[in-house]
Amino acid sequence: MTIGTTIAIGTEIPRFQVKAVSGEHIRQMALILRDPNPIHFDLDAVAAAGLGDREINQGGVTMAYIVDMLTAWVGSGAALSGIKCRFRGNVRAGDEVIAGGVVTDISGGAAVCDVWADLADGTRVLDGAATVALP
C-alpha cells in the first residue's frame, strides 16, 4: 500500500491471483507439513474419496493466499494481527484461485476486512475476516 493512500470502509483490497495451483507444490507442502492425508499426494485416494482426479490443496495453503494478499496490500506480514476463516470447498491442482477482500471497519489504526478466496468460476472456497494495522 502506498503511504498516503486513503483507506475507508468499502475500500477493496487488490486481488491476489494464483493462475494454476501446482500439484507438485501440494505434494511438497504435504511433506513439509507432515500431513499424511493421501488426498494431497495419492490420486487413487482422491478418486476413492469421491473428490475427482487431482490433488487437493491443503486448507492452510489456500488461507495463505489471503495472507499473501494482505501482506502485499499493507507492505508487511507483521501488520496482520488476526485472521479467521471458514473453509467452504476444495482447491485442486490446476485450479485458478483469486483472493479478495474489502474493508468493513476502521478503528484504532487497524482495518477489519472481509476476505475470501474464489475459484476462477466464482465458486467461493474460503471466506472470513482479518484485521491489519494500517501504516
TrEMBL record:
Residues 17-108 form the MaoC-like domain. Transmembrane segments: none annotated. It comes from the Bacteria. InterPro entries: HotDog_dom_sf, MaoC-like_dom. It holds the Pfam family MaoC_dehydratas. Belongs to the enoyl-CoA hydratase/isomerase family. This is Acyl dehydratase.
